[in-house]
Structure formats: structure tokens, C-alpha cells
């Protein structure tokens, strides 16, 4: 009895820990949102205990309700599968049989053979100095018992539908308990073996094929009804009722829990580090900057006449100029190969359409051009590189944060980015011009002027946008994390806008003017905002 109380106490402490962590994270997140953050000061992280306990209590109650909902999913899926099979097959199968085969026999094996600790569990074990062996040993059993409780509503519904609630409860719950303990014991031993991953995958594959293959064979031979009659009776219920005792004994008296716990703890940490959200954010938002290689050049001495931030910006771009040019060459080369193929194909297989029709086709291609230039843009690469290799260190110095230095630095970086993006746009435009000449000039001068205007406007937009958002929000912290949720939203929305442009199938002169007009208006307004706001917002975050 004392052991069971210890199980419940340990689980309750862990749930309180998760709820408290959630509340602290919620307050921290709300505090980072503009306007809202003023009403959620950071002092709430270590004060307002009553409010935090209330929110944590609500979180705990919701977690129980969610657990019941999650455990109802297998029964809902079993209902759908059974209905589908009964529609196409002469033999009728019950929802219980589908659940028993797929989610009790098969899924229980998969779930128990590959257990893992999540990040919060590792933090709980470490922070509260909980015994790894005891935690893993107890929570494995407790999680199985909790699953049995949470599946009670679904099992009762099946029992009511089968007109024998007690029989369905006994067979359903205790077969689940037995199968869980069987595979938990198997997993204990296999985790300490060599080549455990290959062995586990082989076992799961063989077991799954055997169970599903056997069920399919019975379905074809119309024997599933017999299987259901054999498996649903009081004798089988009694067998399941007592079958779990020996496996519980084997699980509790396993002699190498210390080695098992160390191995499981190590494997879980590896998985957490691999899937860590912060690491993914760092790679997504600063990965390009960390990969960019700076090279010292012979021209460094020629910059001695410059001072302050002008010197630093010029020196930075001169040192990763080689890397930028190499990537520009790859982009220009790729574009040229594709466009050369199109030009050669138009020569070998002449296009027999009018100039007006050709212009309509190319107008419809402008939305796709928006997405292509977004992908080829150097804007995000430049922003990540200048923060990782310059701003993350220099923003700590007052002279670097002066209004004039910030505005001058912005324009210098913008023109450098525009230089690279402009070459990409110019390359595409030149190849369109070559295509026009080779095909006897089906495109009129009006269209070529509009296309040049669009390419110029998009080059300005993609060179300006990333820098504008960077200077206004400055979302990166000194340890290369991204904590500003607004930046992530803006970044996602801009990508969505570029991707949405691919879905536009019909465009024309008006669309081209709208895109160009929007880009230039955004640029002009942004310049005004930068000069007024950036000196106040461009700061190093901790």
C-alpha cells in the first residue's frame, strides 16, 4: 500500500512541476508580446503565487480531460475501421475486435518497446534529485494504470454496445495490462543488449506482420467471427485476469535497473537534443550566419581611413565577400543553365504563338517570380551573418548604438544586399531579353519595361524587408536564441505571402503594377520608420 502511495505522490509532484513550468513559460511569453507585455511584468515569474497556483490547477484539470480524450481516439478509429471493413466485406467484425488487434496487440508492442523520457521528466529528475531507477520503474507501471483509467469510458461504451459491460471490461482492461507488462519486461532485457535498435525493429516488424497478417487471413477465410467468439468468453476473461501477475513480478524484480536507467536516460537526452526546439530555431533563424566563413583579405589596410561603425561594416563585408560571391555565382549559374535550356529549346522547337499570347504567359509567371526571387534572395543570409559575426558583439558598445551609426549601417547593408539581389534579377531579365531576340522579338517594349520595373521593385523589397524587420524587432539574443514571437510570426507571414503567390494562376498588367507599387510604398514607409524608430529598437537582447 505504501508503494502505491509513493507512486501517486511521485506522479502528483511531476504534474505540479509541469503545471508550474507551463505557467512560468506562459507569463514569460505574454511578457514578450508588445502592448500585452506591459500588463504582464516579469515580476510575475516569481510573485503572484496565488494566481500561478490557480492557473496551474486549471492546467492540471485540463490535462486530465485531455488524457480521457486522447484515450478515446483508438476507439473512434476502431469504429471507423470496422465500419469500413463491414462495408466492403461479407463478414461483419466488431469495433472491439479491431481495437483488440490493432491497438492492444500491435500498438502496445510499439509503444512499450520504444519508451523515452521527455525534457520535463529529465528536468524533474535532475532538479528534485529523484532516483532515476525508481522514477522509471514506478512511472512505467503508473502510466499503464492511468491508461487503464482513461480508457474506461471507451471500454464501457463497447461493453454497452456488446450488451455485456463486465465481460468487456475484464477482457479489455486486463488484456491491456498483461500486454503492457509483457512488452515492458521484453524491453528491459532488450535495452541492455548489443544492437538493441536493430533487434527491437526486427521484433516489432515480425510481431506486427504476424498479427495483422493473421487477422487478414482470417478475414479472407471468413473466420474472424470464430476468433471473436473464442476470445470473448468468461474463461478468456479469467485468463487475462491472472496473466499479468507473473510479468509484474518479473518487471519489479528485474536486477539491472541501474544500467537500464542510465541507458534510457542517455538515449532520451540524445533524442531531446536532436529535436530541441531552440536548436531548430537557431538553425532556422541564424544557421546561415553561423555557416558563413569570414576570410582576412589583403585589402584590410586600405580601410584605415574609415572610422567607427563605417569601418566595421566595410571590414565585415570585405571579409565574407568571397563567400557571398561564391553563392552568387551558384545562383547566377543555375539560372543561366535553366534559361539557356529554354532558349535552346525554343530554337530547336519554334514557339508558334503570337507575341500577345507570349506576353500573357509571362505576365502569369510574375507571381511565381515573386516566390523564386524570395528563395534566391540574400536578405536573410546577410542579416544572420552580420548579427552572428558583428552585431552580437558590437551592440554592447555605446558608439555602435548611436542614432547616426545605426541609420548609416542600415543603408550600407541595404545597398550591399541590393547589389547581390540586383545581379540575380538582372541575370533573369537579360535571359528574357535574349529569349526575345532569338525568337524574333515577340515581346513588345512596353512589356519589357514593365518587367524591368517589377524586377527592380522586387529586388528592393527582398533586400529591404529582412533588414527592416531585423532593425525594428532585433529578435536575436546574445546567446543566439530567438525569443521574440512577433519576429517568428512576421517571418512566417512573409513566407506565406511568397508561397501564396504561387497559387495565383492568372495575372496581368494590373497585378504587375500592384506588386511593384506595394514594394516601393513599403520601402519608402519603411525608410521613414527606420530613421525614426530603429535607434530605439536596435539593441542587444539578453
Automatic annotation (TrEMBL):
The chain crosses the membrane at residues 20-37, 58-81, 93-114, 165-186, 198-220, 232-252, 328-349, 361-379, 418-438, 450-473, 485-502, 508-531. It comes from the Bacteria. Keywords: Membrane, Transmembrane, Transmembrane helix. This is ABC transporter permease. It comes from Candidatus Vagococcus giribetii.
Amino acid at each position: 500500500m505504501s508503494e502505491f502511495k509513493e507512486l501517486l505522490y511521485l506522479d502528483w509532484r511531476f504534474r505540479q512541476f509541469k503545471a508550474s513550468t507551463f505557467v512560468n513559460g506562459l507569463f514569460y511569453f505574454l511578457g514578450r508580446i508588445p502592448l500585452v507585455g506591459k500588463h504582464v511584468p516579469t515580476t510575475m515569474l516569481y510573485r503572484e503565487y496565488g494566481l500561478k497556483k490557480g492557473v496551474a490547477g486549471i492546467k492540471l484539470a485540463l490535462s486530465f480531460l485531455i488524457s480521457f480524450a486522447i484515450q478515446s481516439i483508438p476507439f473512434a478509429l476502431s469504429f471507423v475501421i470496422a465500419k469500413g471493413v463491414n462495408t466492403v466485406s461479407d463478414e461483419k467484425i466488431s469495433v472491439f475486435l479491431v481495437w483488440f488487434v490493432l491497438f492492444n496487440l500491435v500498438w502496445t508492442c510499439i509503444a512499450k518497446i520504444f519508451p523515452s523520457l521527455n525534457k520535463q521528466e529529465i528536468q524533474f529528475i535532475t532538479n528534485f534529485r529523484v532516483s532515476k531507477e525508481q522514477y522509471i520503474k514506478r512511472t512505467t507501471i503508473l502510466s499503464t494504470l492511468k491508461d487503464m483509467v482513461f480508457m474506461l469510458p471507451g471500454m464501457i461504451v463497447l461493453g454497452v454496445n456488446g450488451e455485456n459491460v463486465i465481460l468487456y471490461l475484464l477482457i479489455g482492461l486486463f488484456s491491456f495490462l498483461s500486454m503492457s507488462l509483457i512488452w515492458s519486461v521484453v524491453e528491459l532485457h532488450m535495452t541492455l543488449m548489443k544492437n538493441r535498435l536493430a533487434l527491437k525493429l526486427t521484433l516489432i516488424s515480425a510481431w506486427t506482420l504476424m498479427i495483422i497478417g493473421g487477422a487478414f487471413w482470417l478475414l479472407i477465410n471468413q473466420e474472424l467471427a470464430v476468433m471473436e467468439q473464442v476470445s470473448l468468453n468468461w474463461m478468456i476473461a479469467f485468463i487475462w485476469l491472472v496473466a499479468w501477475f507473473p510479468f509484474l513480478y518479473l518487471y519489479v524484480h528485474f536486477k539491472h535497473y541501474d544500467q537500464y536507467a542510465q541507458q534510457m536516460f542517455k538515449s532520451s537526452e540524445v533524442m531531446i537534443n536532436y529535436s530541441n526546439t531552440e536548436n531548430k530555431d537557431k538553425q532556422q533563424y541564424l544557421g546561415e550566419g553561423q555557416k558563413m566563413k569570414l576570410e582576412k583579405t589583403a585589402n584590410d589596410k586600405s580601410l584605415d581611413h574609415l572610422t567607427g561603425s563605417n569601418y566595421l561594416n566595410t571590414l565585415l563585408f570585405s571579409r565574407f565577400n568571397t563567400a557571398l560571391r561564391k553563392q552568387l555565382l551558384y545562383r547566377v549559374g543555375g539560372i543561366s543553365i535553366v534559361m539557356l535550356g529554354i532558349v535552346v529549346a525554343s530554337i530547336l522547337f519554334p514557339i508558334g504563338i503570337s507575341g500577345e499570347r507570349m506576353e500573357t504567359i509571362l505576365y502569369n509567371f510574375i507571381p511565381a517570380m515573386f516566390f523564386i526571387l524570395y528563395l534566391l534572395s540574400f536578405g536573410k543570409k546577410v542579416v544572420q551573418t552580420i548579427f552572428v559575426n558583428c552585431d552580437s558583439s558590437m551592440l554592447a558598445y555605446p558608439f555602435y548604438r548611436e542614432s547616426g551609426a545605426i541609420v548609416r549601417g542600415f543603408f550600407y547593408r541595404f545597398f550591399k544586399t541590393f547589389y547581390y539581389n540586383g545581379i540575380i534579377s538582372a541575370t533573369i531579365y537579360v535571359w528574357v531579353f535574349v529569349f526575345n531576340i532569338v525568337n524574333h522579338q515577340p515581346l513588345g517594349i512596353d512589356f519589357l519595361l514593365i518587367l524591368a520595373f517589377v524586377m527592380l521593385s522586387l529586388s528592393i523589397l527582398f533586400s529591404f524587408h529582412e533588414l527592416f524587420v531585423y532593425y525594428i524587432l532585433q529578435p536575436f539574443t546574445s546567446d543566439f536564441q530567438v525569443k521574440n514571437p512577433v519576429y517568428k510570426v512576421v517571418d512566417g507571414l512573409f513566407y506565406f505571402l511568397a508561397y501564396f503567390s504561387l497559387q495565383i494562376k492568372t495575372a496581368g498588367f494590373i497585378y504587375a503594377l500592384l506588386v511593384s507599387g506595394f514594394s516601393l510604398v513599403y520601402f519608402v514607409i519603411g525608410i521613414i520608420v527606420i530613421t525614426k524608430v530603429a535607434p530605439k529598437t536596435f539593441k542587444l537582447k539578453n
